[in-house]
Design a protein that fits this description.
Blueprint lengths: L1 E2 L9 E2 L8 H22 L5 H16 L3 E5 L2 H7 L3 E7 L2 E11 L19 H11 L2 E8 L10
Parallel strand pairs: 5-6
Antiparallel strand pairs: 1-2, 3-4, 4-5
Helix pairs in contact: 1-2
Length: 155
């Protein structure tokens, strides 16, 4: 069955053959956990940074699907040069494709700051992402960490 990654329940892993684990199911579970944590933490005004969510999600993907997903998380210095938080390669046998990914966390009221200028260089992060990803033979992509955009009920 895989693993339940939702933050509100204890993660339990059922041993299954690697080929039987669903990458799609794991990605959905990561998205659900991230969505719920962001929504909950925005109400308490104690929102972790996007790096926290990236670390948790990449750890789960590497642990559960390391046999078919290779992940390279970039340092802040590397990100300033290439515009990406990480690169991952999805493969089966000798076939695969790579993606350079920039994560963005939704702001409290919703929306994203996609037009980020890299400190010290004055360059657009999104342009760096596209240019560097294509030069490396990867697909440029964003991972958007979002949440419910509504107020907590007081009743």
């Amino acid at each position: 069955m895989g693993i339940d990654l939702r933050w509100s329940t204890e993660a339990r892993r059922t041993e299954v053959a690697p080929a039987d684990r669903s990458l799609c199911r794991t990605l959905r579970a990561c998205a659900t956990r991230t969505f719920e944590r962001l929504a909950h933490n925005h109400f308490d005004r104690s929102v972790p940074g996007e790096e926290t969510f990236t670390d948790l999600n990449l750890q789960d993907l590497g642990r559960l699907h390391g046999d078919r997903v290779a992940i390279c998380k970039f340092t802040r210095q590397q990100e300033a040069r290439n515009g990406a938080d990480w690169e991952w390669w999805f493969y089966s046998g000798n076939l695969g494709f790579g993606m350079r990914v920039q994560a963005k966390r939704a702001m409290r009221g919703g929306g994203y700051k996609l037009e980020h200028t890299v400190s010290g260089t004055g360059r657009s992060q999104s342009r760096l992402l596209v240019q560097d990803a294509l030069a490396a033979g990867c697909i440029p992509a964003y991972a958007l960490y979002n949440h419910r955009n509504r107020s907590r009920s007081t009743s």
